[in-house]
C-alpha cells in the first residue's frame, strides 16, 4: 500500500501559499509581501487560517469561474445570508475584480426578488458604507 501525502504537511503548506497569493491579488489593501502570520493571538484566531486554505486557495484559485464571476456569486450569497460585515469587504473586492458600482447595485436589486427586500436594504446600507457614502 502506498502512502498518500495529498493531505500531508507539504500539501497544506502549498495550499496556504496559494491562498495567501490569491488573497493578496484580490483583497484591496492587503500587503503584497510579509505579514504571512495572520494570527492575532486572540480567541478563534485559526479561523483566518482556515479561510486562507478553504476559501482563498480551494475556492477563489479554482479554474471554472473568473474572479469577476466569483465576486457576483459571492455578493449574492452574502446578501441572501444577511452577512453585511463580509459584504462590505466583498463590495470592495468586487470592484477590484472588475465589477462596476452599477453592477454591484444591480446584484442588490436582483437579490431583493429572491432574498427579500429587507436583506437588499441591509445590503445597500453595507455597500454604501463600503463605498464611503
UniProtKB/TrEMBL annotation:
InterPro entries linked: 4CMD/NDH-1_regulator, AhpD-like, CMD-like
SUPFAM superfamilies, per the entry: AhpD-like (SSF69118)
Boundaries of every Carboxymuconolactone decarboxylase-like domain copy: 56-129
The organism of origin for this protein: Rhodococcus baikonurensis
PANTHER family: 4-CARBOXYMUCONOLACTONE DECARBOXYLASE FAMILY PROTEIN (PTHR33570), CARBOXYMUCONOLACTONE DECARBOXYLASE-LIKE DOMAIN-CONTAINING PROTEIN (PTHR33570:SF2)
Superkingdom field: Bacteria
Protein name as it appears in the record: Carboxymuconolactone decarboxylase family protein
